[in-house]
Write a structure and sequence with these properties.
There is one protein chain. This protein is mainly alpha-helical. Helices cover about 75% and strands about 0% of the residues. Helix 6 packs antiparallel against helix 9, helix 14 packs across helix 18 and helix 14 packs across helix 21. The longest helix is centred in the N-terminal third of the chain and has 34 residues. It is globular, with a radius of gyration of 24 Å.
């Protein structure tokens, strides 16, 4: 088991590096004029209201859809799951942008169809967008819990005269409450860290006000707000770490065969969600593309996104290797792994604020691609670590031991045995980091080199300038990238279901 000993010093350095942004913010916030004022309290209340309303809405939508996809038998069941989970893979700022442009006086719906619609903005608009793009968290975590249940208790309850609805309410849902809570906490975390939606909907939450303070050269105040936001994020992360369900051995699965009118009613209830979250953005971007064509878009924006994201993916995987292998080794490694996870909980706007200060202190780093890639790596390193660790845990240690007995050095054993066997996790982790970095907006806005436009920042610039039609190509390209992310996510779920069914048959 000492084969990972040499990875621990590197893992420790990487873990300490993950703590640097928090330390920088603490030092920077010391110059802030005051901790709380009336405006800060308004920002706090807006942020908490948006979070609570999003979690409630995501739960009210996600739990019924989890029951629907887990138990109800419909044609093309896999397709329904893909459609319902698709909003999770799309950046919420795309939905906010298109909803803002489609509704209200002079919006695209009124322009194209002549139908007046209310404006979508403020707390109501931001809540609607966040619910549409976070309910899949609750859907997927609850569905995973449902699929792990032995539903013989439901059959027993129905045999004793309890209706199906009451059986689900009193027997099934209490046993998947941890899955529901886990999804709700993920929705809360996403809401707290999101910048694009509150900014587009013109709602003063922490992320939007931090960006405003940064642009007004109020870096100390931005750091103080960032620390306040981090305190809330830390609480949510703590609650999320305490939520752990007991996984049951899957038994016979509950299967419901709806009548035609029941199936029609279910699909009618799903349709508005799918239309607003998926169909509307695609239609709006397509209309803009037909109307205005390329509209000033340059291919270098796409290349910049690809180049920066690819660099971040490669660096993240290289750094993930020692951390993941140290985590497999023992308790100290697992602690270092948990420290690196801090970056994933730090909102992009907060990470950007901290690294801007570092850039100001080290001028050779300020507004360079290297600093931007550092932000991507610190934020999304946990994605690479978890992927590499999942494959490293399944590594047969006897293979490495045999190589050492045959005279191979530790480096040779790693290069010829360990790395090829963990390659799948490395590729999956790199792909996840690449896709997340492609979509990252606030950190790119704060740290991108002068003139370095990406798909996400170009979309933001045309929104700010009011040239909505020019967002068509970057919007559609980001949707395409999101589709690739969804495919990765659901392929992992499909493998998990296959493994569970194999366990059940054994």
């Amino acid at each position: 088991m000492r084969r990972w000993a040499r990875s621990e010093p590197f893992a420790l350095i990487i873990a300490l590096l993950a703590l640097v942004p928090v330390g920088v913010l603490i030092a920077l916030a010391s110059g802030a004029p005051e901790l709380f004022d009336s405006h800060n309290l308004t920002v706090l209340s807006n942020t908490l209201l948006l979070m609570v309303m999003t979690v409630l809405g995501a739960t009210l939508i996600g739990v019924p859809l989890a029951l629907f996809t887990a138990y109800v038998q419909l044609p093309f069941a896999r397709l329904w799951l893909i459609v319902l989970a698709a909003p999770l893979a799309m950046p919420s700022y795309i939905g906010a942008f298109t909803l803002y442009a489609a509704f209200g006086p002079g919006g695209e719906i009124e322009t194209l169809l002549g139908i007046p619609t209310p404006s979508v903005n403020g707390l109501t608009g931001a809540t609607l967008v966040m619910i549409l793009y976070t309910y899949p968290f609750v859907l997927l975590t609850t569905r995973a819990s449902l699929l792990s249940l032995d539903t013989s208790l439901v059959n027993a309850a129905r045999t004793l005269g309890m209706s199906l609805t009451m059986s689900l309410w009193r027997v099934v849902l209490p046993r998947v409450v941890t899955g529901i809570a886990a999804g709700g906490l993920l929705a809360a975390l996403y809401t707290l860290s999101d910048f694009g939606t509150p900014a587009i909907m013109r709602l003063d939450t922490f992320t939007r006000v931090i960006y405003v303070e940064y642009n007004a050269f109020g870096l100390s105040q931005a750091a103080m707000l960032s620390l306040q936001l981090l305190a809330i994020v830390g609480l949510v992360l703590f609650l999320e770490s305490r939520v752990s369900g007991t996984r049951e051995r899957p038994g016979r699965r509950l299967t419901l065969w709806p009548s035609r009118w029941q199936a029609g009613a279910m699909l009618a209830a799903i349709a508005p969600i799918t239309i607003l979250a998926i169909v509307l953005p695609l239609v709006i971007f397509t209309v803009w593309l037909v109307r205005e064509g390329a509209g000033g878009f340059e291919l270098r924006y796409a290349w910049n996104s690809i180049y920066a994201s690819l660099l971040a993916a490669v660096v993240a995987v290289v750094l993930a290797l020692p951390v993941a292998h140290a985590a497999v080794k023992g308790r100290a490694g697992r602690l270092m792994e948990r420290v690196t996870y801090l970056g994933f909980g730090v909102p992009g706007i907060v990470m950007g604020t901290a690294l801007v200060y570092i850039g100001l202190q080290l001028p050779f780093l300020y507004q360079t691609l290297g600093l931007l890639v550092m932000a991507y790596v610190l934020r999304f390193l946990p994605l690479a670590v978890s992927s590499v660790r999942s494959t490293a845990q399944g590594l047969d240690t006897s293979l490495v031991q045999a190589a050492r007995l045959l005279g191979a050095s530790p480096r040779e054993a790693f290069m010829r045995i360990t790395m090829p066997l963990t390659l799948r996790g490395m590729v999956a982790g790199a792909a996840l980091v690449f896709l997340e970095a492609m979509r990252e907006l606030p950190a790119t806005l704060l740290l991108g080199p002068t003139g370095f436009e990406t798909l996400a920042t170009y979309l933001w610039r045309v929104y700010e300038a009011g040239y909505f039609g020019r967002a068509a190509i970057p919007g559609l390209l980001l949707v395409l990238m999101s589709g690739l992310g969804l495919a990765l996510m659901l392929s992992g779920e499909r493998r998990g279901e296959f493994d569970a069914s194999e366990d059940q048959h054994r």
